Structure formats: C-alpha cells, structure tokens
Amino acid sequence: MTSRRLLLPLLLVLAVAGLLTARVLLGTPFVYADLAVRAVLGEQIPGVSFIVMDDRLPAAVVGALAGAALGLSGTVFQTLLRNPLASPDVIGVTLGSAAAAVLAMAVLDAQGMALFWWTLLGGLGTALLVLWVARAHRPGGPGAGGAGAVDDRFVLVGLGVAAGFTAVIQYLLSRMESQQAGDAMHWLVGSVAGATWPRAAVLAGSLVVLVPLLAGLVGRLRILQLGDETATSLGLPVPATRIALVIVGVLLSSFTVAVAGPLAFVAFLAGPLARMIAARPSFLLAALLGAVLVLAADVAGQNLFGRHEMPAGVITGALGAPFLLWMLVRSKTSGSGR
Amino acid sequence: MPARPTLLATAGALVALAVACVLSLLVGARTVPLDAAWQAALAFDPGSADHVVLASRLQRTLAGLAVGVALALAGAGLQGMTRNPLADPGILGLNSGAAAAVATGVYLFSFSSVTQFMAAGFVGAALAAVLVYALAAASRTGATPITLAIAGAAVTAGLGSLVHALVILDQGALDRMRLWQVGTLGARDLGDLAAVAPALLIGAVIVLGAARALNALALGDDAAAGLGVHVGRTRVVLGVGIVLLVGAAVSLAGPVGFLGLVVPHAVRLLVGSDHRRLLPLTALLGPVVLLLADVVGRVIAPPAEVQVGVMTALLGVPVFLVLIRTRKRVAL
C-alpha cells in the first residue's frame, strides 16, 4: 500500500515531465532534444532559442501550473461541498470570473494581469451567491443529518447562474469590435499557447503562497467532512474554516482564469479522476492530474490539427462533457453524496 | 368553476398581446408616433422614414410572435411530457443541439439559407433531445429533473466546445456565429418566416392537440396507460412536435433560452395545470413576454440593442433559481 502511495505520484510526475518535454520539442519546427537542452541552459542558438525559451517553454510551464491550480481548486470545492459535480467550472464560479473579465475587456479595455482583479471579484461573488443558496438546501432541512453536505439542486443553481453569465458574455461579445471579440473569444475558450514568462511567474507566485495555505487547511477540511456538529464539538470554527477554504479555492481558480482563461472541465475532472485511480481523495494527485490534463490537451491541440492551433480549452471541454455524462450515468445517486 | 378566471385570463392575454405588438411596432431607436402608424396602415408611403421603420419592425414583430409561440409551447410540452418543472428547450440542450448542427452545416456545407438552417436545426435538436433523455434515463435515479438538467448542461458544454472548434477552424464563421449565437429577432425577413411557418404550425397543432394526453401523463405512466393513453406513442409524437417547434424557433432567432421555462410557470399560476387551459394561454403569453423583452432590449442601452436572447436569460435565471428554492421537492 505504501509503495502504491509513492508510486502513483511518481508516475504522474514522470507524465508531467514527459508532456513538458513533448510540448517543447514537438511542433513545427521540431526541436531536437540536445539543442533544446542547450537553449534552456542559456546558449543562444539561432532559430531554436526563441522557439524554446520565448514560445514553447513558457506555454508548457503555464499549462502545468494552471492545471495544478485548477485541480486543487476543483478538489477544494468538491470536498467542501461533498459533491463531485460541485467543481468551480460546473457551478458557475469560473464563468462568473470570465464574465467579469469580459466586462472589463469590453468597458475598460483591460488586458493581461489587470484581468485578475476582475476574475477574482466575479469568482468570489458567484461562489458566495451559489453557497448562499446551497446553505438553504441542506438535504432534509437543517440539522437532519445533512450537516453541510449539499444536494444536487444546488448544482442546478450553479447551472442557472452559469446560463445567466453565458448570456451576459455573449451580449458583451456581440457589442465588441470584431478583432477584440476574436481575442476575447480566444481567451474565453482557455488557452496557454500565448503564455509569457511574466504570466508564468504570477501563476507560480500565487501557487507558492496558496499551496502552503491550502496544506494548512486540508486537516481542517477533513474534520469538516465529519459533519458540522462533530467539527464544532471538536473545537473547529466551522463557518470561518469554510469561508477560508472557499477563498483559497476561488483564488486558485481566479489566478488561473486570468492567466489562461477558463480551461473547461479541468477543475471538474482532476478530483474524481484522482479518487478513481487512488481509491481515495488526494490533493497532490489532483494537482498532478490537472497538470497532465492541461498539458496533454495543449500538446494535442498544437500538433493534431494540421496548420490550425486548437486551444487546450476546446479539447478539455470536449473531453470533459462526456466524462460528466458518464459520471451521471454511473453514480449511484445522480452524483450526490460522495 | 375555473371557467370565469380562464375567460378573464384569456381576455387579458389577448389585450396584453395586442399591447405588446403595438409597442414592438412603435418603440425603438426611432420611436414612431401612433398616428403615423395608422397612416402607414391606411396608405403606405415608401418615402416616409417612419413607414420604412414600421415595415421592418413589422417583420420583427411577426418573427417575435412565431418564436414566442413556438418556444413557450415547446417548454410547456416538455414540462408536461417529462413531468419536469425545470424543462426548457435551452436547459435540456435542444437549443445547443440545433446551434451545433447549424454551425456544422455552415462549416462543412456552407449553409446560408434559413431552410438549410432549419433542416440542420431540426436534426440537431432531435439528436440532442434523444441523447439527453437517454443519458438521464440511464442514470440510476432515472430521468429526474436534476439528471435531465445536468445531462442537458453537459451536452450543451460539449457541443459548445465543438462550435468553438469549428469557429477556430474557419475564422470567417466567427462573426456569423457570434451574432447568431445570441438569440435575436431582427435578422430575418418575411420569406424566412414563411419558410418555417409550416413546421411551426404542425408542431403547434401537435402540442395543442395533446392536452388531454398530457393531463393523463401528469398522473404517471401507469395511470395514463390505465386511462387508455398509448404512453410511448404519445411521447414520440409529442417529441416530434416539440422538435419541430424548437427547430423553427432556433432557425428564425438563434437560441433563445428560458422563455419555455418562464411562460408555462406563469400561466400555471393563473389558470392551474390543466393542459387544456394551460397550453392555449401559454401560446398567447409566450409572444407577449418575448416581444416585451425585445422592446425593453431595444431601449435599455441606447444606441445599441440588447439581444432578446440575453433579455430572456436575465429574466429567466431568477425565475429558475426561485423555482429551485421554493419547491421542497422538485416535482410537478
């Protein structure tokens, strides 16, 4: 068992490394590994250094970091709300971020990291709205065994909110000029292809701050899972812990959305996949799987569509939807409970 | 007993419909005075700007009438057929199925006419409906409002990615799709309306004629069968009618969400859930809501217009949330 506990993360780390390498080497032109290594080590090789250091490597790094952040964010929400459907992209938090960002693009002409404040504002507002509704919907009423778990109706609330944001986004898109709308639509799909080192640094910095915070909260999250009453009797300040977790979860997804756009379904997929392969919930595995998903989607999008570049978000979206449907068909109680 | 309220509600709905039509003709970026409209009706003058505006608004109003009837009836039929208060062509993925089929048609076969859009829309809506229903029914809890809505959302998201991919592969399609993806009434003329009219009429007749069967289905499949209703056959026929309505509406106006959710629920508050009263009144009030939403969208953010699909979503989302919140158990 312990060997398996070590083996799985190790395999996933290898997968991330392999995909990072593939992202840097594959494409047009193909870059030979020895040249790539020399370029990474700082040697100026005409035609290679630029492609490796300014184009592909930042994209690969942002992809890995974004995937990890989304995997963590999704698992925070799914565990906190005890519902595999409750990831930020399914319940509308990501779309709230995106709508606020598109609003800022349309009205204030905002770009780059200025978008972060907007994604954060939109994400937090949406999370609070959805959670407020969720609070009113403990199954069986307050105190009747539900104890903080939320049922699927609350996922419906998220779907409804998401539909509203979609309408707002499409209205804003239709008001923009063609060029700006094209940029916004590209961003909305979620893509890491245009990544730069400053953006990678922002994402890395946010993870350096947020991951230790999250690690400190995971123990409390496990206690919270025993139920609100048990957690309170164990001396845990339940509302404060919950709010802290929501804020960390929203921060993780907001930074990512600001840098790479809403990469559809990555946050939703990583947690359940991690649980599936490890037979237990794991933040580490979810983060690694998130990175694998985004990198794999990006490598596929860059190389499988001829002269077109398919953004990673299109591929994760196309893969995530069938998985969501499969979970719906497979789960015992239409996805509620675990 | 309910004859008088029904009569009252019908009269009120007719008045509201007339008012909505008049507003839709007169109000907008250029407000036309009532007497000019009267003049135009008596003696149309192509040289008068007011008259030209009226003529274009007449097309728009007629499109609004058609789309409003189609989507409201489709929503009421879906809600009755699936015994699901949250059913709506948008929520159950029919709109996105139609949109994805149209996008595929534009990309692969360079579709441009409304008839081609309509054909693609029918196929897409039908496939999405069957897919969503089959997936929800295959889940352990069966086709409950929740599983249907989740399946609808997942299919919508997946098809959305498909549309995105097609748009990326064909940059020229971006502008067409961007404007078409939000429901709007202003883009079609009378010829397009005539092209979809037969499908719309057949669909409306099927759904309106199924009132008794829908009442029986509301009691449950077994009870309905006991009352002599062929449950399976009724569902198939109703499904065809609903797909005809949705396909016609989508090809005319693009995906307009939530109208099919809001209107039947409002009508239920007025006259109860007997489909013999519910369906005709829904058909009257659907265009009222759609036309008013369109009129508000024209004046709310001058000089531009807010498309009617955005307005119905802004109206429909709160109703959707209230429906989830107020019902202890989501069931009809």
UniProtKB/TrEMBL annotation, chain A:
Membrane topology: Multi-pass membrane protein
Keyword flag tRNA processing: no
Transmembrane segment boundaries: 32-52, 59-78, 90-108, 115-134, 154-173, 200-223, 243-271, 283-305, 311-329
Gene Ontology biological process: siderophore-iron import into cell
GO molecular function terms listed in the Swiss-Prot or TrEMBL record: transmembrane transporter activity
InterPro entries xrefs: ABC_BtuC-like, ABC_transptr_permease_BtuC
Keyword entries, A-Z: Cell membrane, Membrane, Transmembrane, Transmembrane helix, Transport
GO (cellular component) term, any one: plasma membrane
Keyword Transmembrane helix annotated: yes
Superkingdom assignment: Bacteria
Cellular compartment(s): Cell membrane
Family membership: Belongs to the binding-protein-dependent transport system permease family. FecCD subfamily.
PANTHER family referenced in this protein's UniProt entry, alphabetically: FERRIC ENTEROBACTIN TRANSPORT SYSTEM PERMEASE PROTEIN, FERRIC ENTEROBACTIN TRANSPORT SYSTEM PERMEASE PROTEIN FEPG
Name of the protein this chain belongs to: Iron ABC transporter permease
Automatic annotation (TrEMBL), chain B:
InterPro entries (UniProt xref): ABC_BtuC-like (IPR037294), ABC_transptr_permease_BtuC (IPR000522)
Subcellular location: Cell membrane
Coiled coil ranges: none
Gene3D superfamilies on file: ABC transporter involved in vitamin B12 uptake, BtuC
Cellular component GO terms, alphabetical: plasma membrane
Transmembrane segments: 59-78, 90-111, 117-136, 148-169, 193-211, 278-300, 306-324
Keywords per UniProt: Cell membrane, Membrane, Transmembrane, Transmembrane helix, Transport
GO MF term list: transmembrane transporter activity
Any GO BP: siderophore-iron import into cell
Lipid bilayer topology: Multi-pass membrane protein
Main location, first listed in the record: membrane
Pfam families from the UniProt entry: FecCD
Domain of life, source organism: Bacteria
CDD domains, per the entry: TM_ABC_iron-siderophores_like
Recorded family membership: Belongs to the binding-protein-dependent transport system permease family. FecCD subfamily.
Protein's name in the database: Iron ABC transporter permease
Species per Swiss-Prot/TrEMBL record: Brachybacterium paraconglomeratum
Organism taxonomic ancestry: Bacteria, Bacillati, Actinomycetota, Actinomycetes, Micrococcales
